[in-house]
Amino acid sequence: MKIIVTSIFVQDQDKALAFYSDVLGFVKKQDVPAGEFRWITLVSPDDQRGTELLLEPNNHPAAKEYQEKLFADGIPVTMFGVTGIHEEYERLVNKGVTFTMEPTVMGGITIAVFDDTCGNLIQMMEQ
């Protein structure tokens, strides 16, 4: 068994698609109608057959509350791995991304946290 899709709740699918593709650099894999919303997934440009990230609308009250509470408490909803966290941090800052935590060493890893502009905090980590 392996993880093939993981989802992240977003306030606006179009805004999220633009941020995750244009700013972060993920590649759109699927974008198909799904009722009043769309099934939009992205993948890493380095592993286009890997795990897909689903941009899930937060239209359900429980999803919206979950998302808002995690954001208010400063808890990232997911983690992305990077090989050069300081370079990635600078690249994203230059693209206007707001960080709530600059690259910080914690044991044998370095982490940073940023706002995805879609209601989430995202942690990136270099091992």
Automatic annotation (TrEMBL):
Extent of the signal sequence: none
SUPFAM superfamilies according to UniProt: Glyoxalase/Bleomycin resistance protein/Dihydroxybiphenyl dioxygenase
Top-level lineage group: Bacteria
Domain VOC stretches: 1-127
Keyword Lyase attached: yes
Oxidoreductase found in the keyword field: yes
Pfam families noted in UniProt: Glyoxalase
Entry-linked Gene3D superfamilies: 2,3-Dihydroxybiphenyl 1,2-Dioxygenase, domain 1
Keywords linked to the UniProt accession: Dioxygenase, Lyase, Oxidoreductase
Example GO molecular function: lyase activity
Xref: PANTHER family: GLYOXALASE/BLEOMYCIN RESISTANCE PROTEIN/DIOXYGENASE, GLYOXALASE_BLEOMYCIN RESISTANCE PROTEIN_DIOXYGENASE
Protein name: Catechol 2,3-dioxygenase-like lactoylglutathione lyase family enzyme
